[in-house]
Amino acid sequence: MGSLHFVKKSYPVRTYQTNISKSELQINRSVPFLQEENPSTYTGEGVKVGVIDTGVDYSHPDLQRNFKGGYDLVDLDDNPMETLPEQGVPTLHGTHVAGIIAANGNMKGVAPEAELYGYRALGPGGRGTSVQVIAAIEKAVKDGMDIINMSLGNTVNGPDWPTSIAVNHAVDRGVSVVIANGNAGPNNWTVGSPATSPKALSVGASTPPLSIPVLQDRFNKKQIQLQPLMGAKQWDLQKDYKLVDGGIGEETIQNAKNKIVLMQRGKIPFSEKARQAELAGARAAIIYNNEEGPFAGSVADGPGDVQIPVAAVSKADGEWLLQQINQQDYWIDTAYRQSQDEITDFSSRGPVTANWHIKPEIVAPGAAINSTVPGGYMELQGTSMASPHVAGGLALVKQAHPDWSPEKLKGALLTSALPLKKADNLYDPIDQGMGRMRPQHAIETGTIIYNPMLAFGKIDKLKDSRSVKVKIENVSKETKTYYFELPKDPHGISWQLPSSFTLKPGEKKTVPIQLSVVSAMMDEGLHQGWVALKEKEKTYQLPYLFVNKEADYPKAMGLEFALKTFSDDAYEYRIYLPEEAASVTVDLYDPQSLTFKETLLFIEDTEAGVIEGTMQKREVAERGEFIANITVETKDRKTYSYQEALFIE
């Protein structure tokens, strides 16, 4: 890479883990679902869409017609094919993404006549460096893409990580960039770069019409959603079964015949755990996470096919089930529940640290999405699948309105989105942004709200007022009158909203919205809600957010420590801080004994943003795998600690 003129720095990329499931193959349900309410006559014809990913299998019959070219930033050639088995761990992710956007054969994508370009930035196993991702963005912009889709990212929740900055530059040059929000939900603050880019269109995952397998404990009134693992037999259980504890799955499992075996993730591959349950005569296996949050994976890496259903659950759900097993002979009902327009648990939530922006901004189907893969079709899930739905939808709007800027296209898609509800209340803004994409509504909209996400920042005074400006355009052929409705909010908040105003056809107006907060009258932390803008019978729900004094966002993220590029005797380190700090300390511990090894870094009086530097090899005594304990002391002398796995060469 030393010969590439655009290489300034190299940043390791942590790709999103694709949440994968496999079931009966069928033509994708999500595309007709998006169009059933208001079908579009547009197909994306003439719109160039670049897919920055693992490559594209352009020989697939459903992609041959639309594939026009691209570039391989891994092997530095004009052949952006997926990684083949003889090249390393094979990939299929980019082909799946491309099919959602513009498949045009047995399966139809959202924009089946859009022009597809592949930019391979992630190599074997879906891994790459930030320099490859940034170079792919640069190449796609130079190639004249109208839209770029990026179903990739890392865990750094900050707006000024290098890939986020590169995305901002691409949008400034007239390219719409659509990015997956990440699969680290359902906790807050889990969106990662580059979806944190202020100018990107960041996408969360909702459900198309689905039948979802669940466990139901009627006595405890508890329902647990199952995530089937790829490569196992389809989950088809629909009656009561006894659960037994299979431990970690390393040893022979006793008394498991015709029962469901519960095992903890870790130590051995999923396929070995599944095989142990199968050998014990189990009807099915459930693997629960060994760290916070849900997960998904595959049992397809073992010898032969797994002949029993295998599913994943979160750590919390698994530990709850284990507690029931240890207390009694425990039986639980297996069933299906119907789902539509729900926010998936895995979809990463916002907001973004430092600028407190609301992400995701929109959602689209990302659960059980069937699309093209090398050699056929496969059902996958993740925000990686939601993002290309939006890229395809944007291509339809771009075809209908070829002169619209990225800002206007984004505004139309957000303005026309459908806010989703959980029971009788709207999902929170940081779950869904403006709601679920509706492409044809965006094409036909008479109103565009350019910046509908109202981020008021962090309140750190006893009394504080913040104002944001919202630009509204009447793109219809008739005069429209708008007015705001006062939100019903708790004590401590007051609003100053514009009076009603009228816009003639083609007229724009920028209006201020002021929020005043008495911080002592409110709880510390994240506050969010909705401000309604009305025009006749139409209501546009604008999400707002602010942080009162302090919140539970991570104070340090993205620790990297690796050999310096083009050097064998020095290390580079990077860590991201959303705010300035009095000090940052990184201590290394043995991952098995948890004994202290050494203090790797101690940095005082740090600014907010990316903290980086170099160290000579001789300054680092230890090598190998460690638990890095990161301690941040803030300017007001509060201390926060985080742990990450770290490998030092």
Structural key phrases:
649 residues, serine protease, cell wall, globular, Peptidase_S8_subtilisin-rel, disordered N terminus, 10 helices, serine-type endopeptidase activity, alpha/beta
Layout of helices and strands, plus pairs?
Layout lengths: L29 H7 L11 E6 L13 E6 L20 H10 L12 E6 L9 H13 L4 E4 L11 H11 L3 E5 L20 E6 L3 E8 L4 E4 L1 E2 L11 E6 L14 E5 L5 H10 L4 E5 L21 E4 L1 H13 L3 E9 L22 E4 L3 E5 L2 E5 L2 H18 L5 H10 L5 E2 L2 E2 L2 H4 L6 H6 L2 E3 L4 E6 L3 E12 L5 E6 L7 E4 L4 E3 L4 E11 L6 E11 L2 E11 L8 E7 L6 E8 L3 E9 L6 E11 L2 E8 L7 E11 L4 E10 L1
Parallel strand pairs: 1-3, 1-4, 2-3, 4-5, 5-6, 6-15, 10-11, 11-12, 12-13, 21-28
Antiparallel strand pairs: 7-8, 7-14, 9-13, 10-14, 16-17, 18-19, 20-22, 22-26, 23-25, 23-27, 24-26, 27-28, 29-30, 30-33, 31-32, 31-34, 34-35
Helix pairs in contact: 2-7, 3-4, 7-8
Keywords: Cell wall, Hydrolase, Protease, Secreted, Serine protease, Signal
GO molecular function, one term: serine-type endopeptidase activity
GO biological process, one term: proteolysis
- Biggest sheet, spatial arrangement of strands: 8-7-14-10-11-12-13-9
- Strand-residue proportion: 25-35%
Major beta-sheet overview: 8 strands, mixed
Low-confidence stretches: 1-27
Taking all Cα atoms into account, the compactness measure Rg is 25 Å
What structural category do the secondary elements indicate?
alpha/beta
Shape, principal axes of CA atoms: globular
| DSSP helix fraction | 10-25%
Euclidean distance between termini CA atoms = 20 Å
Number of helices: 10
